[in-house]
């Protein structure tokens, strides 16, 4: 019986379902409560930080007033622990009445009045990860309709307390149910993270058809170790992951923890740079009311945001791992441009890394580059040797453009002298040899 | 033959040698080149950062002009890679002529003219760790005399390229040789770090007689992982280590990396707080020319420095490890005072830790406390429950004094209700049960 259902569902998802909501043609940007605020429901003793409508209104006010919205940070996303422990008499989810006395629709309208959007959270399973009511298969349609009725703009579907069969059915069903409401609702799927993140268990072709973004890997924590483990996993598996991403469908390495407690300024610049290379969703999870000016200026760096938001939507890759602990990352951008990141894993002192654009497989020519953090600009021939000084756990990031029009997009060759060229028309990638 | 030498030396060190230089009655403070500048000798391409007299003059100028000296940061210490690859014709060490054209004595006088002190580095062995000439047993006297002739004020004796027998002979001999010069030279011994840091291999009684400070453990790196591994080791072995420390003889958990690239502001506050609890030498290794105001204000915090420099010179301890990731550290201070540090190992969000001074084994009474980072002051009864909000990887640190004179020093009892009291007269510690 279970087997029959599974086969039926699998066939159905490959053929009938599809996420045709036109949303998130560039990676979504905004703010998400989880990493920084978790399941803090102690509004009596911790009123400024507990999961309540006040927290989301506070963050919306900051996004609106402090220059975030204009840069693209428009989503204000609720995560776990927002709901009442019981559904209402009609079987609908309802917010905790003490912490969200105005209701979710009130919050959505507060966002919309300010040009912002509201995201909400649910769980494919009997309970959310925090123990609140989950969305079992029979509740998918009613919950999708509830979110649409509330005028919600984005929905994250977690996967605690369900098995693989239920997930295989539920994630596509929710996609269909959201579409069926007629309201455009961005759909974030935690499904692949519950499947281990890799084929053959994960079907990235299907995910791109049903979800706008998906969490591939474990939750980020407020530590450099956590950021590094995520970076390692995503770039070790870049051949599988990069081809899955594109306009409307994004790999999600999880939130930005810039502005929290665990990252140095160097490490914060590194997370921002590498998330831009990955074409990752940019959801901050921090306290925008008290964020330092240093962290704010990293998160508000216009050139990095424009790299992240490049309309081609091509996920970048690691192209070099040097034994000395320097790594180079590259992402092709529109207008014949590209982004380069020089990253140091060292923990001693700034490393003077010597290379040339031709060593990084740029074609013959002259290139203008801008250091996105210092604003320094210069022109380099592909053959010119240069030195970048990369701080421990830090990056140097360049936006590289070709002042003369190149016949072909700057490309990465597999290996040193030969291999398939990057083909901008077909949006396919060569295998990059590390 | 070797055995006979060893036995003779061991007996000799226990009876005749002794460090009677009257120096470093409180933990030494200053600046040390190693962690931040390593063995960078590339003055052609990296002139501002290479190991040269210019670097030490730059740092001396900063210590003198930016308020460091008045706070106690007076040592400017050269580490490895300062010397020529050859001794001079008389067998003396000599500085690299290109990088130290003025010579070491010139540098020492530059320091002394500004109320600062100069430290230098050598290695008990055939070579320094960086491959420069070492100090073999037959060179100990001439090297000690050379440093004294140069008017050097402190000497760090590393231990690469020597065996246990040579170290057993060399470290005490150098102590005797430095004393014999008649110049007061603070003596930093890396010996115990080469012996694994613990008895029975390490004899801390002997070390206290021959060295002013000693490195017990591995080198610090510019990362929170490194700071944590040092903190773990020192507090796991606190019963052995704390009794070894006192005025003129200090355990050295290695340099402060505050102001470098790897620590967040929270983590920087934590290193400073825990180094103060440990009565650790405070040697910064950073770039004082470009240090951020945030890092500078942590390093220049007067109350933490006064805790570090407390004249009793008692090394503090960890008194509690909570399963939730909160740890409490305590150090008894002069004037019936004490320091408390609440430290969080969490990587999620601020933790609201509830406790009382009586739960931390303070005796009945009323205590005034000052939060050393915020300046907030209040009075607490021992029985009053309070909450401290401790940030991830951060600390809350209090200076606690008793407004009413207490008959006995506030003490820690072993276990909850009984055990030996702290005896201020005898400077002995109870065993603290964790």
Automatic annotation (TrEMBL), chains A, B:
Q: Does Transmembrane show up as a keyword for this record?
A: no
Q: Which residues form the signal peptide?
A: 1-18
**Keywords tagged on the record:** Disulfide bond, Glycoprotein, Glycosidase, Hydrolase, Lipid metabolism, Lysosome, Signal
Q: State the EC number(s).
A: 3.2.1.-
UniProt cross-references to Gene3D superfamilies, sorted A to Z: Aldolase class I (3.20.20.70), Golgi alpha-mannosidase II (2.60.40.1180)
Any Pfam family from its record, for instance, is Melibiase_2
Q: Where in the cell is it found?
A: Lysosome
Alpha galactosidase A C-terminal domain residues: 313-394
Which enzyme class, named as a word? hydrolase
Q: How does it assemble?
A: Homodimer.
The record's similarity note reads:
Belongs to the glycosyl hydrolase 27 family.
Q: What is this protein called?
A: Alpha-galactosidase
Q: Which organism is it from?
A: Ataeniobius toweri
